[in-house]
Amino acid sequence: MKKLKELLPRVMKTRIGFVFTLLTIYWLKTLWAYFVDFNLDTKGFYQNFIAVLNPIPTALLLIGLALYIKNTKVFYGLASFIYLLLFAWLFSNAIYYREFSDYISISTIMATSSVSAGLGEAALKLFRVWDLVYFLDFIVLIFLAVRKKIVTDQRPFNKRASFAITAFSIMLFSVNLFLAEIDRPELLSRGFSNTYIVRALGLPAFLGYNANQTYNAHRDRSGATAEDLVPVQEYISQHYATPNDQYFGIAKGRNVIYIHLESLQQFVIDYKLQVDGLDYEVTPFLNSLYHSNSTLSFSNFFNQVKAGKTSDAETMIETSLFGLNQGSFMVQYGGTNTQQAAPHILDQLGGYTSAVFHGNAGSFWNRNNTYKQWGYNYFFDQSYFTEQTEENSFQYGLNDKIMFADSIEYLEHMQQPFYAKFITVSNHYPYTTSLIGDEIGFPLADTDDETINGYFATANYLDSSVKAFFDYLKATGLYEKSVIVLYGDHYGISNSRNPDLAPLIGKDSETWSDYENAMLQRVPYMIVVPGMTNGGIFDTYGGEIDALPTLEHLLGIKADNYLQVGQDLLSPENDQIVAMRTSGTFITPKYTSYAGKLYYTETGLEITNPDESTLAEVEAIREAASAQLKASDAIQTGDLIRFLDNGLPPLDASKFSYIDSLEAELAIEKELGSQSTSLYSQNGNKSTVDLFKAPSYQELNGTTGTDTSTSTSSSGQ
Ligand code: GP9
Ligand code: MN
Question: Where is the Sulfatase N-terminal domain (predicted)?
């Protein structure tokens, strides 16, 4: 301490010393915030290294600007002022984070109500004793000032040297950006989550990034008027596919349970992996659902995501509108646009309570903000579940069996009917890190690509997690009261890896084509309606954009009242044109246009010289696909639903909070008393948590790790 008292005035004697002192203090305070206040969710040395580095470049750049000033007073004033701004931004974020588990964005600042919710009256409550750490430097400064230890340097800093400092900080920032991009490719173009940006580039850079995004969104939005609704509404009414009488309303009033099957592709359904002459069925449970009479299964259902991946799939499933051509809709618009998503529609029309269960941080893909705009009552993210360890999770979150198991205590307190979505993660790239211990046993494939090799084992784990959850639904009786929808969000094996996958699915790596890449974009889509007997496998061509209208019609809700661009897949009027997000790319039962090439869908034959009539036919399809995307984009980027008056009352997103959700559920249960429809109440106020059982792979298959159910002998080959 004594040393510091001596050293500090000495260092601060020069202007550059003063700048570096401020920089060091800011850096230390940021690290304090990073590791005490924020949950940056960093994993491993590399990510931590980037986090420790990132406060320096921007702070040096900004505080260093003062060095250009000649006048002594102005120099010290400006340097301190910039430092204070940086500090104020850091500290407000630290406080805000305690309430919202997120960082302050431009739209938060502009929406004064939520700022005051975060930083107004309640703010005092959010202060902690430890916050004194943030103010230690001011105490030292006052002390030094009183002791007259502060001296100023009258000599202006060399112009060239000032420039060198600026250049150096910009170079440091580039290094920082480069390291961050290595850790997370496409960080800036895809966005992912505020946490990702902050932990990679720091708070000031996050503000710049967010400002730029907000500006772009604002520009499109402010140019749009109610007039723009006219062509969109026209498109939607012309494109509407009327319900199929046979299925309309068959699931009316039931709970809706969505199971998001991470990265699961349709080729896995009914697939058997051959290893050492033995066949291993990858998804035995999903296969049984696929072939059940109580399931509406689809064999030509395509993912339509782009860079927003999971978030694009969610956007389509919940709103029947596409993600963006660039980046993620949920990240860029999800938290601010007026939207009419499934939870809100079902709440208004059927009194549904809604929740999402997901074992990753709530800020990923900006879910915590988007879900409020979608009308989700509850969002049970990572913070509600068992603490994550190396054993029970990997970089994308908690393992699925544990996520399902931990969800039960919250699910059972939801009022029925409910709309609940479970987002799985274990079957996520790289497919090698999520399974350990007793879950290991399903064989790895034997190709040159490790990613492919691990995919089947994680898919099998996902399958047995889903089975465990279904067993629970059956044990509690929720099963008969629900309709359960399962969908794969997007490919798990990327096109560049497909040639290596080819031999496993009976294809040739050498002749592998873009047609085959296109066909592999199919994902499972199954609607389980317990009690129904006229299910089956439909070969209708469709995609994620069609899921909501399909569900609405099953629930007896006409979809044409909303700005949804998909079509009911059970409707005889369905056009069967699957528009992919990349322009000019589409799939129909007859033609496939993918990666700039045209094919016959049935045979895979490339059409290199189309005749006139083929050209005309293909052109008409191309136009239809582009009209669908155009209508969707107009709605999304123009925020057109804000102008819509279709009788659905506007939603007040600020009334939702995803903190203390169990308490909120219990309060409602208590208030309703004997009227409560939660499973817990219906079960005589007894918990059903014990009814969930998820045996591990080894418990199911014995410790040898060989499949006992479907193995066939190799001797006949
Ligand atoms: C993470 C998860 C993964 O929360 O949903 O998203 P993805 O990487 O598949 O887009
Ligand atoms: Mn995904």
Answer: 254-557
Q: Are residues 179 and 244 in the same domain?
A: no
Q: What is the domain count for the chain? A: 2
**pLDDT, tens digit, for every residue of 444-499?**
999 999 999 999 999 999 999 999 999 999 999 999 999 999 999 999 999 989 99
Is the Cβ atom of 310 under 6 angstroms away from ligand 1? yes
The answer to whether 606 touches 513, Cβ cutoff 8 Å, is yes
Q: Identify which of 229, 188, 232, 228 has the alpha carbon closest to the alpha carbon of residue 210.
A: 188
pLDDT tens-place string over residues 540-596: 999 999 999 999 999 999 999 999 999 999 999 999 999 999 888 999 999 999 998
Q: Say if residue 694's pLDDT is above 80.
A: yes
Structure tokens belonging to residue 405: 């198991």
Sheet of 591-594: strand order equals 578-579, 586-587, 591-594, 597-600
Q: Whose CA is nearest to atom 3 of ligand 1?
A: 310
Active-site residue (options: 21, 108, 310, 550): 310
- Residues around ligand 2, an ion, CB closer than 5 A: 309-310, 489
In which domain, by residue range, is 423 found? 229-666+677-701
**Is residue 80 in some structural domain?**
yes
pLDDT of the residue at 717: 31
| Closest approach atom of ligand 1 to CA 489 | 9
Residue reference for tokens 């999402």: 356
Q: Calculate how far, in angstroms, residue 425's C-alpha sits from the geometric centre of ligand 2.
A: 7
- The CB of 360 under 6 Å from ligand 1? The reply is yes
Are residues 427 and 490 both part of a single domain?
Answer: yes
Ligand 1 binding pocket includes 315 (Cβ within 6 Å): no
Reported pTM: 0.86
In a domain, 501, yes or no: yes
Report the C-alpha gap between 144 and 136 in whole angstroms: 12
Q: What is the DSSP string of 613-674?
A: HHHHHHHHHHHHHHHHHHHHHHHHHHTGGGG--SSPPP--GGG---SSHHHHHHHHHHHHGG
By alpha-carbon position, which residue is closest to atom 6 of ligand 1? 310
The CA distance from 522 to 524, in Å, is 7
Mean pLDDT of 169-183: 96
Domain annotation covers residue 32: yes
Q: Are 589 and 601 in contact (CB under 8 A)?
A: yes
Backbone angles phi, psi at 81, to 5 degrees: -65, -45
Residue 29 Cβ inside 6 Å of ligand 1? The answer reads no
In terms of domains, do 171 and 305 share one? no
Q: Are residues 144 and 283 in the same domain?
A: no
Q: Using an 8 Å Cβ cutoff, are 82 and 65 in contact?
A: yes
Calpha distance 690→680 (Å, rounded): 12
Compute the residue count for the chain.
717
Alpha helices (runs of H) in 278-331, residue ranges in sequence order = 284-290, 309-319, 329
Under DSSP, is residue 275 helix (H, G, I), strand (E, B) or coil? strand
